[in-house]
Known about the structure:
Helix content: 40-55%
Number of domains: 5
Amino acid sequence: MSELESCGEFRFSHEVRAHPLAEVMREINRLQVVIAQRVAPPDDGDVEAHLAYWSVVLGISRTEVNKYMEIGYMLGRMPQLAEMCRERGHLSMKHLTMLGKHTRPVVDEKVDAVESGLVDVVKPRRDGEALRGVRAMATRVQRVIGECAPEVRPRDVDVAGLHTDRVLARNVEATVDAAIDAAAYQVEKDGESAEDPAESPEVQEVQAAALDYFGDRMTAKEFIAVDEHGDAGVTTLTTVLERHHAVEALAIIDAVAKQMKVSRAAAFMHALRGTCEVEVNLELFRVLSLGEDGEPENTPVWLAGAGWLSTLVAESWLKRVSTLRVLGDSAVEGYRPSESQRAFVRARDGVCSFPGCDIPAEKCDIDHIVEFDHSLSGGERQMEGATHTDNLHCLCRRHHNLKTAGIWRVVRGDDGTEAWTFLSCDEGPFAHSDKEHTGHGRYTFASQTEKKTAALAEHNEKRRKLHDSLRSLVDKVRRDLEKERAVDGVDCESEGDGKNRGDSDGE
Length: 507
């Protein structure tokens, strides 16, 4: 019987003692809980004094002490969660910090309901599942608190990592504009005079509520900040754009840079001046679904690189669609997946398929899960391993290299679930390997250091050649200037002598 089965409940992958360091990390997590419970804030003590005291005792900053305080406060109010963390040690300090921060405002009357929901959030849904990242878990925590204690639902700013609630602000502005346009159209259609649509009570109410919520941030969704660097001769332009606008802008700049073989900054200037011509295609995804009436439903739209789009933003993008493709599971002969297959796999996976990795699918390689059959027969490659989307997944380059090296292995189930296993290596006294390079994309510390040294040497050699060539050019310019001055001096002297002789003859 495996350790998972003997536990009687589901466990995360790092709770299975496949590696001794996994238990070390869990013990560290348990000790973090011990510290947090000891540093828990006093009921009536001075917080500043408490922070100062523990900062000195533990040798950490006040900010770090405050994190422990919030975690300790949470664990003191949620005994079931505290017991789970002490026993299993499965949550990292970052996970605990996020939980402590988001649960702190919950009033005592609603703590039990919130705790019940959080216990489900911090448990795996199946054996061997990889622990979710902090941001992914924060989204679920936000949902639980939003249902149990909606008045203290964590802000999108804190969960999604945005500088402002730009998504909400964008939707407010788009909705107001749509309402005004609709009202104006209705007035024009009916031929009736009416008050300015922008001054209708509904629009005024939304705008007043938005101003009250956002304040100055309402006007800061998109902007360009200019920072002059004095005598440095450069200026920093900080551009803040909505995600879908940024995706489009970067796609254009990168396309110009690739076509003209220039830097992004140079490509940006070419795009502004109109001195280039490129064509950029962005991918929009939508799930096809029929409603009860048999008509297609208005399902959400996903923009690669930006994520889900609001209804109004999606409509503006859909008006620009030039090509439609119906994507689904498919097979093609040969090793390389078709463009339709690539688009389908990216839309299906969303991110790198390696447990815990959140590299976006559009930045990943499309990898064959079961290696394609490249065996030779009669001098021709066999097509027996026809490329099927069921055998494809997204992997970032780093995890693709690890899989290719055989360090990690993966099996995909019929339901699309992937099971990853780690290949351990002998490390005892009889283990021996003459290879410093331990696999594609993997290096020992010594070989990695050697590689870094070589790269730095190459960089400095290029730098030396550049300086030498510049020095030679400067010397040439100086010589040319000296020759020019010498010639000018001779000419001036000759003209002067002629003038003096002429004057002398005239006298």
